[in-house]
Amino acid sequence: MFSGIVEGTGSVIRREPTEESVRFVIEAGDIAQGLKIGDSVANNGCCLTVVEINGSRLSFDLLNETLQRTNLKNLNAGSLVNLERSLCVGDRIGGHFVSGHVDDTGRILRFDQVGKDYEIEIQFDPRNAIYLVPKGSISVDGISLTVGQVTRSTFTIWIIPHTREVTALRTYGPGSEVNLEFDMLAKYTEKILAARG
């Protein structure tokens, strides 16, 4: 479980093919401190298991399913990735509950600076529109953000300069693919209502 408060960015050192799919080696800096083999770390909002630690470098094995369903398939040596270690009991939750299970990807249509802040418009699959409401929560590449305007196939978010500076968003622009995790409360509510008919 995560909160969507990204701790910082890591840099992809290399990606190596494995029998199952691919292994990513990430330079995580201080974020690697205190981690153990088997711990969970969100990479662009995708919960991955640490399989090897070499100083501040963390290795993660990804299945083909994970690659196909997330934007991690686009990462190569030098790519930045948002990192967040899993929550501990008693931690402050500054964002919202994020499971690290990516629902789908979206694509940035606009990334506009407005004054000092930034407005980002993201296109998504209209089948997921039921999960989005203005002022609701959304995880975009693991970042807990507030939904702005919503249409049938797009939504907007606003970020402050700090968020852009400390996340991989600083390297994004129109056309960039982002991981989306919709609010789990909305997903559970939909399932309960559907079951009641």
On the 0-100 scale, what is the average pLDDT? Answer: 95
Total domain modules: 2
Could you tell me the number of beta strands? 12
| Beta-strand content | 35-45%
Note the gap between the termini: 30 Å
Structural class: mainly beta
Q: Would you give the CATH topology of the largest domain?
A: Elongation Factor Tu (Ef-tu), domain 3
User: Could you give a short account of the major beta sheet?
Assistant: 6 strands, antiparallel, barrel
- Run of helices and strands: EEEEEHEEEEEEHEH
The parts where pLDDT drops under 50 for at least 5 residues are: none
What percent of residues adopt helix (DSSP H or I)?
A: 10-25%
Would you spell out the secondary-structure blueprint of this structure?
Layout: E1 8-17, E2 21-27, E3 40-43, E4 46-54, E5 57-63, H1 64-69, E6 80-85, E7 104-114, E8 117-123, E9 137-140, E10 143-150, E11 154-159, H2 161-166, E12 177-182, H3 184-196
Antiparallel strand pairs: 1-2, 1-6, 2-5, 3-4, 3-6, 4-5, 7-8, 7-12, 8-11, 9-10, 9-12, 10-11
Explain what this protein looks like in three dimensions:
The protein has about 200 residues and is mainly β. The chain folds into 2 domains: about 10-85, Elongation Factor Tu (Ef-tu), domain 3 (Beta Barrel); about 105-195, Elongation Factor Tu (Ef-tu), domain 3 (Beta Barrel). The protein has helices at about 65-70, 160-165, 185-195, and strands at about 10-15, 20-25, 40-45, 45-55, 55-65, 80-85, 105-115, 115-125, 135-140, 145-150, 155-160, 175-180. The strands form 2 sheets. It has a 6-stranded antiparallel barrel with strand order 1-2-5-4-3-6. Strands 7-8-11-10-9-12 form a 6-stranded antiparallel beta barrel. A hairpin with a 2-residue loop joins strand 7 (about 105-115) and strand 8. The protein is globular and about 45 Å long. The two termini are about 30 Å apart. The mean pLDDT is about 95.
